[in-house]
Amino acid sequence: MQGRELSRRERKTLADIERVLRRDPAFERRIVAESCLFCSCPAPDGAGRSRLPALARSMVLLSLGLLVSAAATSAPALIWAFVVVYAATLAVLALLVRRWLGQEPPGSRGGGP
């Protein structure tokens, strides 16, 4: 830590705040979910959503590979493959952003109308 250290009173206040926040399960789930946006750790609520970030990473890499090869060869099949994979990649990334913002798709949690 650069600069001066926290005083004893400041450390105690910070410890009290952390203790109160750790007691709130909703806060804990939100912190874990937000910190795992692009990692492959399991979702805190057991929803099994951990494959989506890995899929997004793979699709981005595949899109970049197809883009480079399509640009280098100008082969129509590679160009169309890139278009399809790129569109699917954008859809997966939109799902990730939606999850990151806390807006679950309708029907994903099983509750509500």
**Radius of gyration from CA coordinates:** 21 Å
SSE succession: HHHH
Mean pLDDT: 79
How large is the count of helical segments?
Answer: 4
Largest sheet: none
End-to-end CA span: 50 Å
Strand content: under 5%
Basic shape: elongated
Low-pLDDT runs of 5+ residues are: none
SS content category: mainly alpha
* Secondary structure: number of strands: 0
What proportion of the residues is helical, as a percent range? 55-70%
List keywords for this structure.
mainly alpha; elongated; 113 residues; 65% helix; 4 helices
Written account of the structure:
The chain is mainly α and 113 residues long. It is built from four helices and no strands. The model has no long low-confidence stretch (mean pLDDT 79).
List the helices and strands and how they pair.
Elements lengths: L7 H15 L2 H11 L15 H23 L2 H25 L13
Could you give a quick summary of the protein structure above?
It contains 4 helices and no strands. It is mainly alpha-helical and 113 residues long.
